[in-house]
Amino acid sequence: MSSNWFVSMAYFIAAVVFILGLKAMSSPVTARRGIVWAGFAMIGATVVTFFMPGLHNVGLIVTAIVLGGGVAWWSGKTVKMTDMPQMVAIYNGMGGGAAAAIAGVELVRGAAHDGITSTLMALGAIIGAVAFSGSCVAFAKLQGIMKKAIRLPAQNNVNFFLALATFGVGLTVSYSAQPSGFEVFIFFVLALALGTVLVMPIGGADMPVVISLLNAFTGLAVGFEGFVLGNPALIVAGIVVGASGTLLTQLMAKAMNRPIKNIIFAPLTGAAAEGEGE
Amino acid sequence: MEGFAALYIFMLAAFAGYEVISRVPVILHTPLMSGSNFVHGVVLIGAMVALGHADPEDPVQLVIGFFAVFLGAANAAGGYIVTERMLAMFKPGERKEGGAK
């Protein structure tokens, strides 16, 4: 399998360059170089994927890349500099959505997976979907579409039971040999609702930290789906982003003098006296 | 891939991610967030593989797969252009960042 070797080698190089690129991006002197390197690695990895043996639906793939890439490129190019944070949010959400959709394809395909893989697939799908809907809410808030912080009654109970239901359905779906389309659909509706409900009560000023956290989420989801697909490049890039994103979230929260707990569970402490006990 | 080999990759990658950005100055927080947002755009590759292995006879798989590739491509392209625009403001030779070396 010489072409397989070629693909794997290219993925390996891309993974190394991604890490070096991130490293370069954490210093102002080399930051610009870092993103350009990473960009070339991404193009290389994408092109090489077409040489993967047994790849069908190439026409659809190309169409989707041109459409998705084109829309994003155009919108990123034309957006005002001050509107950047919400653009980061929406692109990040799309990555999460992509990770969730990968899990969706694998679920509907009913590809036989062992226990660990099924669990990671479900987790990746949930985290990815949460990142997707959460980022959409974050985008709406920063863009001024959604002005108020909407707080449900008994917000944390809702969060808790919704999360429980999502995990329950997710694991059931991913462990069953051939889940019906309807079950998969319900699973994704629950996961998307969870992301929406989690981010809705958080105020606009805290959004950068939330976006950073959702960014780390997406990284994690990508890493998990990389495991499902048996693709080490996805695992490495995803988990590196997951870890660095978590650290970055902490740093940002610290710079704002706001502990992360207070931001994410703001409704908890914010809801007057009833907070702590629940 | 062996389960445990993947577990080791997870662990090492997590440490690498943590170390790689451990000394980042505050002004770079947002660009770096955007940069790592671009890096997880590698999900595009996974989406291509998923769509590429979907059953061409099953429209449900094709639609979800198409959606995955579309979103992945948007993540990669948008993440790149936004990060590049932010970092273009850090032209070499600016002098404020004395402490970052």
UniProtKB/TrEMBL annotation, chain B:
Matches recorded under Pfam families: PNTB_4TM (PF12769)
Chain segments annotated as transmembrane: 6-26, 38-54, 60-82
UniProt xrefs under InterPro entries: NADP_transhyd_a_C (IPR024605)
E.C. numbers: 7.1.1.1
Broad class of enzyme this protein falls into: translocase
Cell compartment(s), UniProt: Cell inner membrane
Listed GO CC annotations: plasma membrane
Lipid bilayer topology: Multi-pass membrane protein
One GO BP annotation of this record: NADPH regeneration
Leader sequence residues: none
Keywords from the named record: Cell inner membrane, Cell membrane, Membrane, NAD, NADP, Translocase, Transmembrane, Transmembrane helix
Domain NAD(P) transhydrogenase alpha subunit C-terminal: 7-91
A single GO molecular function term of this UniProt record: NADP binding
Top-rank taxon: Bacteria
Catalyzed reaction equations: NAD(+) + NADPH + H(+)(in) = NADH + NADP(+) + H(+)(out)
Role of this protein: The transhydrogenation between NADH and NADP is coupled to respiration and ATP hydrolysis and functions as a proton pump across the membrane.
Protein name, per record: proton-translocating NAD(P)(+) transhydrogenase
Organism name: Parazoarcus communis
